[in-house]
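Schema walk-through. Below, the input block comes first and the output block second. Nothing else is stored per chain. Lengths vary across the set, and this one has 259 residues.
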Amino acid sequence: MLTTIKINILNLLKSVFFRNRLDSHGKAYIPKGVDKIICNVNQYIIESSLTPPWVWDAKACHRFWGLDVNNKSDPNAPTGYYNKPKALIKFLEQFWSPYIKKDFSILELGCNCGTNLNLLHTEGYIDLSGIDINADAVNLMNSVYPELYENATICVGKFEDLLSEIESKSFDVIFTMAVLMHIHPTSTQVFSNMARIARKYIVVVEQEYGNCEYVFSRNYKRVFSRVGCKQVKKIMLGVDDTPDYAYEYHGMKARIFEL
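--- output ---
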């Protein structure tokens, strides 16, 4: 009986706090009224490094992205990521122009099998690195993007472990695309390490309202301002002027921060 009550309470909390990236009409979700208050409360809980009962713990998140996702028919699995629309990185390149130059040293967090990095490589970016928790994804990179794999610096491991080992001001740019939203609330050192390691800019394209058991909503302007970064550009995809081919990222916010 007690277990049933706990499950019902947990399901109620999920129904209150969980949100989709898109609304019921397929448009970018923008909370209003009471819904906005609930979303703001959820953001503050996550940004306060708390683990509310309706989300996974850090161990479960690491296990999912490092191993379990490989066995699922999921767009985030390495093979699915390889087959994602390649034009999306064009949006990122247009968005960060003219701040980011092709001779800058660039680190992608959550590079998966390297689809984003490979497109940057073919566009003439010459100093590329990546980190991913999933060893199968990096092994796939060696097969599908051998030139990138040979020329880029790729590391396998948890951000929480690897970033702390990197010297300060090691990269001109650190960027993420739909990756920081999976960083567990207890792993706030990831953001301070990003600010420590980046020499010039941090660029993020992330959900800030949508969330579930392993997607954590945050206001990234607030997150990075706390670690000494200044926002210089921002758009919400699907609301502000957005290329049609970036539809899979509608509902996310793209931000550029200056160190």
